[in-house]
Amino acid sequence: MRWVLIVPLWVFLDQSVTVEERGYSQVNTCVDLPTFNYKQKPTTSRVQCAVACSQEPNCMSFSIPMTGPSLCYLNNATFKHTGCSYGTFKHFSLEKSPERPCWHGGSYNTTTSDCICYNGYIGNWCQTLMQDCSEGWNLPYYNKLKAVFSIHPITSPYPFKVFCEMVHKGKLVILRNTPDALNVDFNRTFTEYKDGFGDLEGNVWMGLQRFHYLTNHRNMTFKVVVKTSGVAIKMTDFRQRFYNDFRVSNETDGYRFTFSASEIKPGTSALGDCLTDMVGLPFSTIDNDRDTKVGNCAKIHLSGWWYKKCGPCNPMGKLQPTSERIQNDDPWYIHMPIDGDLAALEVKLMLSYHG
Questions:
Q1: Comparing 334 with 15, which gets the higher pLDDT?
Q2: Per-residue CA distances from 299 to 20, 21, 110, 275, 316 (Å)
Q3: Contact at 8 Å (CB) between 40 and 70?
């Protein structure tokens, strides 16, 4: 019998990478557990704690008790040197240096004397996270990428991951319903719609709470994009509509939305308007019926949405077979206001900064 020894990744890191090589320096201060501590994790070494901090978008320093339980305290601010060394904790702060000027794993560009950032960090030294995708789309190291990034809107108490299309001012995906990814069931509870579900790189619903944070930190445009069968056989087309200054309220208010104007951009194929009549309505799900119809629209359509009388939009409905060119009358399929009632082959809902 052959035995395989499985060794945790941190063991190798502990032997090959020092705390200093990860960009942290010990700070001499008599502060014990700081007020800016936000998380604790079990640890066996300073390096393992440094690894944990480097993987947290909000972590700027960490603390380890000199005696007692082996815990790693992650902090969202850095310490200042006071020259004191009699505290009960050892503190390590993320610091720039001439040799390692870039924070959060950024690479120093000696030609331009600034940093190439990763994972959603921006700034000359990769010191902050983007508020949304629009803050990174025109940076040379993010431009044209379509990938998962970390962001931190100022209205959110925590950072979170999103899928960004770094083109045309940066677009953040709220919903993707496509046959080109693993199927996701959109017939979900209110809690699931609040928290989000699916795969950021596939079919996904970002979540109402994040939708609220994203639309209340600055003016955002909500973009509805529907891929349809074309007028001619074997052709496809994209229909678009834009909603400016789009805002989603908080959970207490039912995640109601408002916007200032609806428009179609010149040169794009028209998509009908199915949100104006829904302004001010709360979000409905199978277990939280808040539409204006007798009965539950979410149960009829098998998906959550801002329903009034069960129409005319159902972007999170089931996808029709690609061979079908006309919208199916069955209520559980995707329904969108498209000229000629052409079938929706894919739906994306996205946000971008409306500056």
A1: 334
A2: 56, 55, 59, 20, 13
A3: no
The rounded mean pLDDT for the chain is 86
Range of the domain at 314: 130-353
DSSP string, 98-123: SS---STT-EEETTTTEEE--TTEES
What DSSP element (H or E) covers 240? Answer: strand 236-244
Question: CATH number, domain at 73?
Answer: 3.50.4.10
Residue 224 is classified by DSSP as E
Query: In the chain, which ranges are continuous DSSP H helix?
Result: 9-16, 46-54, 190-195, 208-214, 297-301
pLDDT of residue 42: 87
pLDDT at 197: 98
Look at residue 151 and give its three-state secondary structure: strand
* Count of domains forming the chain: 2
Residue located via tokens 């939708």: 211
Per-residue pLDDT reduced to its tens digit, 156-197: 988 899 999 999 999 999 999 999 999 999 999 999 999 999
DSSP, res 156? -
